[in-house]
């Protein structure tokens, strides 16, 4: 899908948002954040390169006129058009691919990742990479590499099926390299991972500064997801090696990294980011749009809002709720939020768990709610049970609505809550149940916490602060600097990020 939406305004700063599975084709916290930035900056021209599932996903956000271009880059569905290279070009691409997969599997060869990725990006641009990766040559390259003496993966005895699976996963993951990269302005990747690929290409070819914002830690979430993925270890070694080296390359090359919390910063520094290139920018909400929620429900209720997804760990929440009901039989659990396509099995598993624990009648899946404030108002206490988060919107929105919260200690949750809510370890139903009961049994404490939470949002986490900060960053990175000799160069931070992929 390619949508042209308006005309560019001369002299107006230009930002290309690089997204994956979010804005403008999906709802959710990161999509809300993107919409806030875009609608809050009518003085900036925006384009969007959106990594999607099949490319047939509809636009679910109303785009303002200064979003000029939306290009969808499907990772699945119909393979990209193109033919495998031949002759010398085929040999050169096979050699580059061999260096690429060697870097993924051999710690001593990791320096070859960046130059090989650059070569693959050129092949993707001329339409030969995807076809090459669906050809027998790519399979032969991988099987040759991971059977080399000394590689740990060799001990797992990789099979031909492993090679086919790993190569297919890489082919899909590398499809964003075929997207036309931005040629000017700022490339703003709103997550790590494959969304960054067009930004790295733009940096290499056109010197476009790369801005990277991580809400959750993309690499950590890949580790969590692949832990239970139905692949043998040789496949996981290839794919997770790719995500790790891509994260490290992104951290090294970005002109500026703006994590949504201090927890993410630790991962980024560990991944090789220069601490001087990291600037924490918290998510914000408009307190006027999320006013105090008003009276609590008469029937004691725990509420939750988000997308129904394994990373949200609703199973722990349901188990905790069953423990709460052992002490307070009249309590209800209301779950607000949609189920992403492909996530139906997880929702069914959660519903089955509630039934197995004897709580089917007390746990309700409400689906998407027209006004998210209704989800927060529906609970005496608002719950968050995730095993990975950045700086969750649902939490600060609930806080702005004056509701007491019980949350898991992941990502920036503790930074958001401070002492205005209770924070418990992830994957600990007993601790979560105890915290929920503590607040359900103490109305005065709930009220005091809710009032303090709203005040904390007003003082520290407003939308205006977030938008003003990013407007300043966009102008900082896109503004050229005039040297005495008359030469125009990028700002210092952008120059740091613009060094060649080959060195």
Q: Hey, roughly how much beta strand do the residues contain?
A: 5-15%
Count of beta strands: 15
Classification by helices and strands: alpha/beta
Main sheet?
7 strands, mixed
The fold-level CATH name of the domain at 301-460 is: Rossmann fold
Summed up, the helix count is 19
Write down the CATH class of the domain at 301-460.
Alpha Beta
What gross morphology would you assign?
globular
Name the CATH homologous superfamily of the domain at 301-460: Glycogen Phosphorylase B
- Distance between the first and last residues' Cα: 35 Å
- The percent range for helix content is 40-55%
The largest beta-sheet arranges its strands as 1-4-3-2-5-6-7
Indicate the CATH architecture of the domain at 301-460: 3-Layer(aba) Sandwich
Runs in which pLDDT lies below 50 for 5 or more consecutive residues are 481-503
**Mean pLDDT rating:** 92
């Amino acid at each position: 899908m390619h949508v042209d939406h308006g005309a560019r305004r001369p002299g107006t700063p230009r930002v290309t948002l690089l997204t994956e599975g979010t804005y403008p084709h999906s709802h959710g916290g990161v999509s809300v954040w993107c919409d806030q930035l875009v609608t809050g900056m009518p003085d900036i021209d925006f384009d969007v390169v959106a990594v999607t599932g099949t490319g047939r996903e509809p636009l679910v956000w109303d785009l303002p006129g200064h979003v000029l271009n939306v290009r969808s880059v499907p990772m699945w569905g119909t393979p990209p058009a193109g033919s495998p290279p031949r002759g010398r070009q085929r040999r050169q691409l096979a050699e580059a691919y061999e260096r690429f997969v060697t870097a993924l599997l051999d710690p001593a060869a990791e320096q070859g990742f960046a130059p090989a990725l650059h070569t693959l990006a050129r092949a993707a641009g001329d339409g030969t990479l995807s076809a090459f990766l669906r050809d027998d040559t790519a399979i032969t390259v991988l099987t040759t590499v991971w059977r080399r003496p000394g590689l740990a993966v060799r001990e797992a005895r990789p099979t031909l099926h492993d090679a086919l699976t790993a190569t297919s996963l890489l082919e899909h993951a590398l499809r964003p390299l075929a997207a036309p990269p931005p040629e000017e302005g700022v490339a703003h990747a709103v997550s790590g991972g494959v969304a960054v690929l067009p930004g790295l290409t733009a940096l290499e070819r056109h010197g476009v500064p790369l801005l990277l914002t991580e809400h959750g830690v993309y690499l950590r979430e890949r580790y969590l997801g692949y832990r239970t993925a139905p692949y043998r270890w040789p496949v996981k070694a290839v794919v997770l090696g790719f995500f790790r080296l891509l994260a490290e390359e992104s951290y090294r090359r970005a002109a500026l990294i703006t994590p949504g919390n201090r927890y993410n910063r630790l991962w980024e520094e560990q991944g090789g980011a220069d601490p001087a290139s990291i600037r924490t920018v918290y998510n914000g909400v408009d307190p006027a749009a999320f006013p105090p929620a008003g009276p609590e429900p008469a029937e004691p209720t725990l509420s939750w809002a988000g997308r129904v997804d394994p990373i949200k760990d609703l199973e722990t929440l349901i188990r905790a709720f069953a423990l709460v009901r052992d002490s307070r039989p009249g309590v209800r659990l209301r779950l607000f939020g949609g189920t992403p396509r492909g996530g139906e099995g997880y929702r069914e598993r959660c519903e089955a768990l509630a039934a197995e624990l004897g709580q089917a009648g007390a746990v309700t899946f409400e689906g998407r709610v027209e006004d998210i404030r209704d989800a927060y108002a529906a609970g005496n206490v608002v719950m968050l049970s995730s095993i990975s988060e950045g700086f969750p919107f649902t939490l600060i929105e609930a806080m702005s609505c004056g509701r007491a919260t019980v949350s898991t200690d992941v990502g920036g949750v503790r930074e958001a809550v401070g002492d205005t809510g209770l924070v418990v370890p992830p994957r600990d139903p007993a601790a979560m149940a105890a915290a929920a009961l503590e607040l359900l049994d103490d109305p005065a404490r709930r009220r005091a916490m809710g009032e303090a939470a709203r005040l904390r949002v007003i003082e520290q986490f407003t939308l205006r602060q977030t938008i003003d900060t990013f407007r300043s960053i966009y102008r900082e990175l896109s503004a050229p600097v005039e040297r005495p000799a008359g030469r125009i160069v990028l700002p210092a931070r952008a120059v740091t990020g613009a060094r060649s992929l080959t060195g």
